[in-house]
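Subject: Protein record for review, amino acid sequence with backbone structure tokens
Concerning: The relation between a protein's sequence and the shape of its backbone.
How to read it: Take the token row as a discrete description of the fold.
Enclosed: The protein record, placed directly beneath this head.
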Amino acid sequence: MVEKRKVYTSFQELPPREYMYIPQGQLEVGRPGSFSRIELVHISIALLVLTVAFALAFSANQPPILGFNVSGFLLALPLSLLGMLTGFILHELAHKFMAQRLGLWSEFRIFPLGLLLSLLMAVFTGFVFAAPGAVMFRGSARAEETGRIASAGPLMNIVVAAVLFALVPVIGLVSVFGRNLDEILIFVCFINALLAVFNLLPIGPLDGRKVLAWNGLVWAGLMAAAVALVVLRFSVGVLFPGL
């Protein structure tokens, strides 16, 4: 007799093994770029919460709980969304696609407590410590493959930051979302460079620890590039007077 699968009506009812950790049993690897429905739900939830959290932080001169700036929040939303799409989504997709390319099952899973903490910190302090979740992968991954998967995320942030920074001097003063486009590019460049530096720190569960364990030269090259982009962000006024 086949056991009937239990149907859960909310994430709160799901046991941790089903919403966060790697599932058991035979899994379909899928071609690079394939997504499951539950993964798309998790990505959407993380993107929504982080966009709101960072918009609160960007628009706050004081903790939002002490004085919510509605107009500033609405103005910051598009900028926050752009930062999360490039800095967070592309980072996680780079991990996922690399794992799939290596023949591993790979999907993004949210960390509900981390998302809640991110939102609460934005509301009560005006700062965000983002811990939205992670890309899980399952299969026989060797140390080299684990290192390549870990390095894919920060590398994506570095590439995005470098490309956007290169566009700054040729964009001009086109206005988008009430801001000059060059200012938006510099902002998104900085977000991606900063995320690359943070994720490359060789501590805890961060990508840097796995990359360093695999190849110290690769780790050093990525970290140097990320730090250089952060430094360039603060050199914009010197390199491009008038911006």
